[in-house]
Amino acid sequence: MVYISMLLNCRNVFQIRQVHTQVLVIGMLRHLIVANKLLYTYAQHKAMGDAYVLFAGMRERDSVTWNVMIGGLAKAGDYMNCFGIFREVIRCGARPDNYTLPFMIRACRDIVDLQMGRVIHDIGLKCGLEPDHFVCAALVDMYVKCRAMEDARLLFDKMQNRNLVTWTMMIGAYAEYGNAKESLVLFDRMRDQDIVPDKVAMLMVVYACAKLGAMHKAIFIHDYICRNKFSLDITLGTAMIDMYAKCGNVDSAKEIFDGMQEKNVVSWSAMIAAYGYHGQGRKALALFPMMLRSGISPNRITYISLLYACSHAGLVEEGLQLFSSMWDDHGVRPDVKHYTCMVDLLGRAGRLDEALKLIENMTVEKDEGLWGALLGACRIYGHMDLAEKAAESLLKLQPQNPGRYVLLSNIYAKAGRWKDVAKIRNMMMRRRLKKVPGWTWIEVDKIIYQFSVGDKTHPQSEEIYGMLQSLSKRLELAGYVPDTNFVLHDVEEEVKLGILYTHSEKLAIAFGLFATPEGTPIRITKNLRVCGDCHTFSKMVSAVTQREIIVRDASRFHHFKMGACSCDDYW
């Protein structure tokens, strides 16, 4: 016991080695409790080389020995030896326990090895350890990090006692990996089970609201934060700025921003970005000198937000000035994201030759976002040669991204080059790539409804299509002519009209007109860029119905009011 006490008092590896020498000389290493304590002390001081030498020489080992080695190697990030030791455990017939398995599962999580994670899970099942809270929680975490959400959810639903950490993990995972709606469902379930969220959980929920654009839920979450006296510090305040901005309410975002007692560069950048999403470039630029006067220096994200705002408001000269001065004035070296903003800025303004020259002269490595911005500009202006050059570079970088093929196909379709459209689609079929389907969401009475093109799954489909028919007659009288150029299929004009008539955003707007109170804004969110005909349709609907329509698409916000859009048809 004297030597165990000595090990407890060791402050560094040199002292541990001195004790090691003493116990070795007097033969105390034959006692397993002493050897294990020495092993543990090495592991605690991250001296895994010394620990491994001691471990290799031990004639007797028990579960503590194995666990100390596996835990120590896992914490040190030495996953190869960690898995090697675990294999020895299995080979020698020892049973892993609820200490060993969580370490192995977390190792699989850290290296994102789903296949090995499933193997460890099977071992846990055979040992009867899956129901154990620590094992199950580690498995859920591993599956989440490996994006195997079905496996994670299956285990999560089986857990008898879910703690706040596990709930937060699942809420955050759904928000991160594309099902923000389920994040909010889980948040409600968590509260129903009397689990009190902490600030981390609230951050995940705020993030989910931002992803989904759920305004009513955002207001509820804001109220919940206030009622439960969560401090609106930099982290939570900044997240709420982003939430309100992405829910279409930039004024509420500004109220949060103005109410924050402390702001950092992230807070300022978030508010600048908020104005950028909504096409309010002048307001975004006006914040920049205010930020500098407050003593906050800009970073790369600040400049991305500023350049993005310039791009979406057509502020070409202002964007060029910012880009040319960012290094000289504030020591921020332009990276590929800044160049991408500039290509987008010049491309949207029709200055495609300047955009190409900028790409050719840049010294940083080009990425898919850069070529994607150029290809998007080519789509607007029908520049075929440049589109093919951009697409060639893109497809080399992202051969498995279906969106790139679809964009090029759409450019060909717009030009009437149907043979080239067929060639692109055949290439996609050979590579087993599928176009990402378009979806539109609308929140009504705290329920989020989802529509796809031609959707008839909604229980009120009859009323929705009836409203569309009625709208079409009113819009025709007001001068609306459907633009079938946005139906990129080689089909008859009548078929094109039918497809155009049932775009998902039109269905969502029609539903919103009779399902929401008269005079209130209709807010919809789309996962893709809104098409030109739906843009015109939304403008005219806002005029004939006297309703504001707020559309968040994959690129920005559009506020339709009295027959005009906040983007000034520049998007």
From TrEMBL:
Pfam families per the UniProt record, alphabetical: DYW_deaminase (PF14432), E_motif (PF20431), Eplus_motif (PF20430), PPR (PF01535), PPR_1 (PF12854), PPR_2 (PF13041)
Taxonomic lineage of the native organism: Eukaryota, Viridiplantae, Streptophyta, Embryophyta, Tracheophyta
Transmembrane segments: none
NCBIfam families noted in UniProt: PPR
Superkingdom as given in the UniProt entry: Eukaryota
UniProt-recorded name of the protein: DYW domain-containing protein
PANTHER family, A to Z: PENTATRICOPEPTIDE REPEAT-CONTAINING PROTEIN (PTHR47926:SF452)
Keyword Repeat: yes
PPR repeats: 62-96, 163-197, 233-263, 264-298, 299-334, 335-365
InterPro entries (alphabetical): DYW_dom (IPR032867), E2_motif (IPR046849), E_motif (IPR046848), PPR_At4g14850-like_plant (IPR046960), PPR_rpt (IPR002885)
GO MF annotation terms: RNA binding; zinc ion binding
Native source organism of the sequence: Carya illinoinensis
Domain DYW: 479-571
Family assignment from sequence similarity: Belongs to the PPR family. PCMP-H subfamily.
PROSITE patterns per UniProt: PPR (PS51375)
Sorted UniProt keywords: Repeat
